Amino acid sequence: MTARLATTTVAFALLVLCMPATAKKYQPEVVVSDPYVELHTGPGRGFPIFYVAAQGDRITILKEHTDWYKIRTPRRKEGWVHVSQMASTLDLDGESIEFPRYDVDDFAHRRWQFGVGGGDFDGARVISATGSFALTPNIRTELVGSQLLGDYSDGYMGTLSLVMSPFPNWRLSPSFGIGTGVVHIEPQTTIVQSQDRTDEIVHASVGLDFYISDRFIFNVIYKRHTVLTSRDDNEEIDEWTAGFSVFL
User: Fold this and answer.
1) Do 239 and 126 contact (CB within 8 A), yes or no?
2) Where is 2: in which H helix or E strand?
3) Disulfide check for 80: which of 2, 40, 127, 244 has CB 3.0–4.6 Å away?
4) 153-164 and 139-149 beta bridge pairing
5) Over the stretch 127-138, which tens digit does the pLDDT of each residue have?
6) Residue 59 has what pLDDT?
């Protein structure tokens, strides 16, 4: 139970620490420098424009959602402004402000990526924490630590993979990988006592990375593992996982 709780806590902490700074609550004030900025009723161009803030107005930023900022005008009007217009505002000292903008191009050229996920490992539940580093836009190394929670046995697994993304600039980007690692199985107490096992493991994988917005990605991965046992026959195991990750 302690191992399960520790794994879940570490995974959650990893995701929180990797969240971009823009996700933190803040309410800075900026000054409109363009002739006007348009306020929409919601965070999207499909929402109607209901008000404009004029040049020289001092507006307060309330929150951010993808490429949209919710702002409040001096007349207490609240609405959503696109980042392209926010980029033209000035701080209270009259200096220009850089508003971070992330798009598919940033997704394609990401370097570090961290995430958490869960799924199925040959009938057992699996919780994973992943970290990867891109050597090129098409090739990255990936380190995964997993906790295995079965009905009759628990365990953990660590793998190192080389992953190729042939189309990194696609919003829905497929990937293919190969890797190796170690899996350790601890049988739960039964009438017939079994020994713990530690075996080398190799795998091939197919995955899909869906770029949501900002720095967030949704991942789905299938891995076909071969457990290299000390017995005469090896074991073939299927693993399916899904989760979320962020890139830096």
Assistant:
1) yes
2) helix 2-17
3) 40
4) antiparallel
5) 999 999 999 999
6) 94
